[in-house]
Structure formats: C-alpha cells, structure tokens
Design brief:
Blueprint (H helix, E strand, L loop, with lengths): L2 H22 L5 E11 L11 E2 L4 E8 L5 E4 L3 E2 L5 E7 L5 E9 L7 E2 L5 E4 L11 E3 L3 E4 L7 H8 L1 H7 L10
Parallel strand pairs: 1-10, 1-11
Antiparallel strand pairs: 1-2, 1-6, 3-4, 3-5, 3-7, 7-9, 8-11
This protein binds 2-acetamido-2-deoxy-beta-D-glucopyranose (2 copies).
Family: Belongs to the Ole e I family.
Keywords: Disulfide bond, Signal
Protein name: Anther-specific protein LAT52-like
C-alpha cells in the first residue's frame, strides 16, 4: 500500500517534467533513476532465485564530465526501501558526463561484500543521444553473502552452472559451502 503514493509521485513528477521539458528543453529535464539492491546469497556474481532484496542498503549516484573528470552531479546517500528498491531524482542533462550508481554500504554484516560485477551501474541521463523517457532503469546491484546458502548447490545445478564451473576448474560454488 505504501507504494501507491510513491507511484503517484513518480507519475506526477514525470507529467510535470514532460510538460516543462516540452517548453524548456533538455537542460530542465528531470530524471527518475530506479534500481534495486540484492544479496547474492550464493556468491556467484549474478542473481538467482535465492537472492534476497536488501532493505536499508545505501547507494550513491555520481556524474563526471567525460572530458575533464570533474564531478557534475552527486546525489545524497540513497537508502533502499523494504523491497530493496530505490529511486533518485536528478535534474538537468548529463550528455557530457558518465553517470554511475555505486553501492556505498550494506546494513547486513553477513552480506556486505560488494559484487565485483554489480557494484556499479551506468545510467544515461540525457535525451540528446536518442534515449527518451524520464524513467531510467539501473542494473540491479548486489552485495555477496559471507557464506553461500546450502541450497545454492541445488539451485545452481538446476540452472546448469554447477557442472560447468567444475569442468572449467574455476572456483565452484561447492568449495564455498
Ligand atoms: C529552464 O527553466 C527556467 C525556468 O524554470 C528557464 O528560465 C530557463 O531558460 C530554462 N532553460 C532552458 C535551457 O530552457
Ligand atoms: C566538460 O569538460 C570540458 C573540458 O574541460 C568543458 O569544455 C565542458 O564544458 C565540460 N562540460 C560540462 C557539462 O561541465
């Protein structure tokens, strides 16, 4: 139920910003970046059905000028809700910047090791490169659990990963159980 006002706020924000954008152009654009933070309970660097949302995880959005690396936007620390979801409102156009959402910290001591692959997500915050729309989706970001859950072996076998990683001689999930 708590999500209904948030959705209404999104719609309102998007409606208002679309109207303004129509009148004023890209520099007055408002973007809503949405994303999700999960706990990789199998320590495999991707989401499985055993992954769990992390409520209270902290992320940050930063944009840096692609040419001189100066900070062009920095959000406050953003905290995920009870579903592990967050949203960040950004005003302006960042065509000349690279914008990244990064994990800052996890509230769970047993799941606070940032994923190698999914600790940062690039988001595009301009309409000038052909991406339209105010809602921008970031890749899900994950922290890894300190010890993989016992059920992971079965889930990964079902997914066909288990044998694969054993054959290739890489660190297999079983070695962490
Ligand atoms: C952005 O909006 C303000 C009014 O809120 C206006 O004065 C300004 O000219 C607009 N900028 C652009 C680039 O259209
Ligand atoms: C980015 O840096 C370049 C080189 O310093 C500068 O010309 C440009 O205006 C900067 N853009 C923004 C949006 O700050």
């Amino acid at each position: 139920m708590a999500n209904i006002p948030i959705i209404a706020l999104f719609c309102f924000t998007i409606f208002v910003s679309s109207s303004l954008n129509f009148v004023y152009g890209a520099e007055n654009m408002t973007y809503v970046v949405v994303g999700h933070v999960y706990c990789d309970t199998c320590r495999v660097e991707f989401e499985t059905k055993l992954s769990e949302p992390i409520a209270g995880a902290v992320v940050k959005l930063e944009c840096r000028n692609r040419t001189d690396n100066h900070l062009t936007f920095q959000s406050q620390e953003i905290v995920t809700d009870e579903r592990g979801d967050y949203h960040i409102v950004v005003e302006g156009d960042y065509e000349e910047s690279d914008c990244d959402i990064a994990l800052v910290r996890s509230p769970n001591p047993d799941c606070s090791d940032p994923s190698e692959m999914w600790r940062i997500s690039r988001v595009v915050l301009t309409t000038l490169d052909g991406v339209s729309g105010e809602l921008r989706f970031a890749n899900n970001l994950g922290f890894k659990k300190d010890k993989a859950l016992p059920q992971c072996t079965r889930i990964l076998q079902e997914m066909g990963y288990y044998e694969l990683s054993q054959e290739s001689g890489e660190l297999s999930p079983s070695s962490e159980l």
